[in-house]
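Format notes (please read before filing issues)

Several people have asked whether sequences and structure tokens are stored in separate files. They are not. Every record keeps both together, in the order shown below: the sequence lines, then the token lines. Line labels are part of the format and must not be stripped during preprocessing.
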Amino acid sequence: MRKVGMRDRHDKGAVLITIAICLFLLMGIAALAIDGGVAYNERRSTQGAADHAALAAAWAACNAKGEAAAVEAGRQAAANNGYDDSDPEIEVTVRRLGGSQAKYEAVIRSTNQTEFGASIGAESVSVESRAVADCRKKAWGGGYALFADGPPSCTTMELDFNGKKIQVHGLVHSNGDLNINGNTADKSIFHDLVTYVGTPKIKGADFPGPDPERKDPQPEPHQIDFTQFEPAQNSGQPDYYLFDVMKDKDLDPYRDGAGRISHSGVFFARTQIQNIYVEMAPGHRATFVSPGPIAIQPGSEVLAYHSSGVAVYSNYRDPASCANQAIHWRGAARFEGLVYAPRGLITFSMSSGATSDGAIVGFGIELSGSDYVIQWKDVTGGNPEFELEFEE
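Then the structure lines:
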């Protein structure tokens, strides 16, 4: 019989201790792997639910539902995504943040029992997710009073501004060069941010707010589909007037005894609009559209009729000409709505203290004159549009 010595007993004890330590470490690794993975998946789930809750609350507030209804909408969105605050292991908080009537925070905290964590003293694990969303009224046409979409491949394909004592209220942007050649004695005033992509040349202008700044190219802000104005989409409509070439005398049947347009509607010319004079009779509005160039006489006033806010829309582009004249309207002009030539050049001027409400958007813009005001204004009269955005 072999005798067990003291050294053998010590060796066996050391082995048992080592095994116990290894088992403890393995349990810890298992707890981290399994319970940690569960917590990671739970974190992803709570974040998705918090995102939905914040968006739902902001959207409800943006649509004038009231703060209480917005909070309830957020809590309901969380419940719909599996996180009902009535569960004692789930905590959902939805609240309005300062600075905006429709900016809401959603916080979801979820506590779950661990599978292996109890072996190392962690009987439960909690995860928390937070989201902040804001809802804003979407500015018609991005809030731009002047927007030139074209790059300066031609000298005219930019924003050229010449004149004195002109005031512009609303954003101004050129995806090409920016040329402001004002009068240093009677400066023009740009009340809102002016941005450009190409080369700026600026004199004779004041900027009460921020100075003009360089910006990345911006998408054309209206993106209005021309086909909605075409005859195929408007056949039989009583407020739709169709011409081949529209000349000034062609408008006589639609004028009253004082020579004013007394028929509200969309006036569409299949080829072009030639040198028309427009004065609106009280209570009437008109929109003039052509795939070709449009020329309007000095002193004309156009008040937009179409629900898009378009007052004048030319879809013209001349591939053989760098000038690419789409809308030509000089003299004592006034408009309400959108003067729009997304594929061509707009030459425009006003004077004599006139004010126009709306926007001028073209591939290129040449603007001149003196002593007048252009101010961005949403003239569509329709239901407001909103946009949701995550703040955090």
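For reference, the curators noted about this record: The helical segments are 6-62, 67-80, 231-234. The radius of gyration is 33 Å.
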